[in-house]
Structures
1.
Amino acid sequence: NAGVTQTPKFQVLKTGQSMTLQCAQDMNHEYMSWYRQDPGMGLRLIHYSVGAGITDQGEVPNGYNVSRSTTEDFPLRLLSAAPSQTSVYFCASNYRGGGTEAFFGQGTRLTVV
Amino acid sequence: KQEVTQIPAALSVPEGENLVLNCSFTDSAIYNLQWFRQDPGKGLTSLLLIQSSQREQTSGRLNASLDKSSGRSTLYIAASQPGDSATYLCAVTRGGNNRKLIWGLGTSLAVNP
């Protein structure tokens, strides 16, 4: 079982560059979300989606865009990378929002120089 | 505003010891509480999910309890092993229509051989 797959695992960007972090799940989960994890700040929700075609903002959405054209995929786009976006990014999915077990990808470690 | 606190932030124990990790939350109106494990450089793995109507859940050597009225959950690990070394995070799901996860900062556990 693949579960939640994130790519790439590591990425270095220059300030101002854009990129897309990929996330795919094969469990037919309705709910998908993106978090960033920073030392001392825990996991913070960036964007989430309750189903294909539906997305919403989390706590820290600025500088990020998402779309959900299919149930399986939920890419996160950095529009113009800034050093403040250096972080570890996690994608998660679950069947019905917070009511069920959440499955996480392995993470993407992003450094913006 | 819901806040989740985990104490202690770090714990080091000898192999074989039984131990308790604590999680407290400020708003008792939760939908459920989940305990996760995170290994260094890896994603999060869900260990136990306790619904708001439940008092405890067990999986192997792990037992999680929930006291909603006092805003507390404990994760009990029996007969700890070096392989249990990881960071343990708890997260609560808000009640109502908003099912987002609110995270603690985690307890970093080291089990020494």
2.
Amino acid sequence: KAGVTQTPRYLIKTRGQQVTLSCSPISGHRSVSWYQQTPGQGLQFLFEYFSETQRNKGNFPGRFSGRQFSNSRSEMNVSTLELGDSALYLCASSLDTEPGAEAFFGQGTRLTVV
Amino acid sequence: KNQVEQSPQSLIILEGKNCTLQCNYTVSPFSNLRWYKQDTGRGPVSLTIMTFSENTKSNGRYTATLDADTKQSSLHITASQLSDSASYICVVSTRGSTLGRLYFGRGTQLTVWP
């Protein structure tokens, strides 16, 4: 059974550009969550999708957006990139959104903004 | 304020030795607590997940304990191996919310020396 797949693994962008990251959850999983990980802040919750609907959102500016498709694949978009957006972006998938559900993480996309 | 604090921030031990990592949380209402292992540049991998009623849970050489009264958890690693070198992250989720609303500690960076 394939795990959570994130693409691309590495990305270099310049300030002001926009970027789209992709996450394919484990087959059968309908919930996808996104997190930003930086050395200074650790893992921070961005948003959560379930059946194409955003269920929860963290405290990030509107430049960060996402969506989920009917096949549960999810994309995250960051517009007008800033240097501080450089981070490892992780997505996690689970069967449902219950607090006790097991969450499986992808390998992450390492975004560097220069 | 919902917070998860981990200690120590970093730890160096010799191969074969045991160690204990600590996690204190103020997250409420509590649903479950998880320990994840994250190798450098990779996504976190679940080690254990414990609910309110569970005091101890083991996964091979990893044993997690939970004291819901004092809101403390520990992760004990026995007979450490070089492959145990990683960041160990304590994660707490709340009742009444969805899976995505996870609260992360900043992790303990464990280095095992030969």
3.
Amino acid sequence: IVMTQTPLSLSVTAGQPASMSCKSSQSLLHNSGKTAWLLQKPGQPPQLLIYEISNRFSGVPERFSGSGSGTNFTLQISRVEAADVGVYYCMQHIEFPTLGQGTNLEIK
Amino acid sequence: EVQLVESGGGLVQPGGSLRLSCAASGFTFNDFWMNWVRQAPGRGLEWVANINQDGSESYYVDSVKGRFTISRDNSKNSVSLQMNSLRVEDTAVYYCVRHIDHWGQGTRVTVSS
């Protein structure tokens, strides 16, 4: 399953919302929504943000939200902060896990 | 607190072998699938291999099939990745991952002559 993310780069003013998308090459509808979003901050290992499409992982701020179904998934940040800078990856794990190319978020 | 500590990385010549290990603590190890994920310099993440709770099932990305072997020792709370016939393109930071939710700091593997 190929995961395709858009955009590849995103520049947002602090305090403004941000949105990024992920499209899977086949529907993930009937598999308990096994898609997730990870954030890799500069110089750090990735960390889990969202699992099963829309569930925030422990400690993840409420400004992060995930949505979607079928083949289209979205990660939204309601108000971007400096701490949110990094590369965001979507992934699926209904089969052997695959990840998107990543969306690089920077602050304007 | 969940902890995953990788070791075993280093510099190896093309065609050589390396064994990575991951020591896990802070959770019931044999309740979880375990994984290895890698990141080549300046590149994205690639899921390399995973293994189920009792070690009876394991899966690999196509590019490492027949060369890498994942294994686990539930008595020692550890998972390993035996890497043979290494290629320059295997150069990466290798992360040990519990399910999808906890990641180690990674160990660097460099394949170069």
4.
Amino acid sequence: SQTIHQWPATLVQPVGSPLSLECTVEGTSNPNLYWYRQAAGRGLQLLFYSVGIGQISSEVPQNLSASRPQDRQFILSSKKLLLSDSGFYLCAWSEDRITNTGELFFGEGSRLTVL
Amino acid sequence: EDQVTQSPEALRLQEGESSSLNCSYTVSGLRGLFWYRQDPGKGPEFLFTLYSAGEEKEKERLKATLTKKESFLHITAPKPEDSATYLCAVQGLFSGGYNKLIFGAGTRLAVHP
């Protein structure tokens, strides 16, 4: 069966410091990978998605970047964190289907607090 | 622009008191509508996918239905363990070569003994 791991679960960082959140998927190959951010009282906002190694698309301009160095590894980064980067970050995967329909499967999330 | 609105924002029920959550959507051609359950501090857990109007899916005390403009998540005789935030999301036909889902803000359900 497929599993998704995301870490760290909780992170408290000062403004201006770097960030690295990691996500790995097991039990599947060539998944589509996603980074979402969830703000309190608001829907999940798609930040980045990737359909393959080295292929990253950004949905919104921001202080963050993403990379996919391996097929089942997705990394969310920042060189200098802003207060507004605080939030709950979720990694997700979906099967790479021709029709691209189907559900997303989410990791446990990473709570980032920028002080 | 694709949009999802969920109501109510919060719902408090007594154990055994059945109710429904609403998800209204606007999308340029529906490819799929998804329901998720999210516990506090956790990632969303997939519940159902609905593809066409008139379709229904069931899982234990939950039943999801779909019309051309909205979806309902019916909760029959809920138990305290059904307490969670329920998220609705849609995928449009023109979402591109990946599963771009548009999420609603969710309904926070609290079931009290």
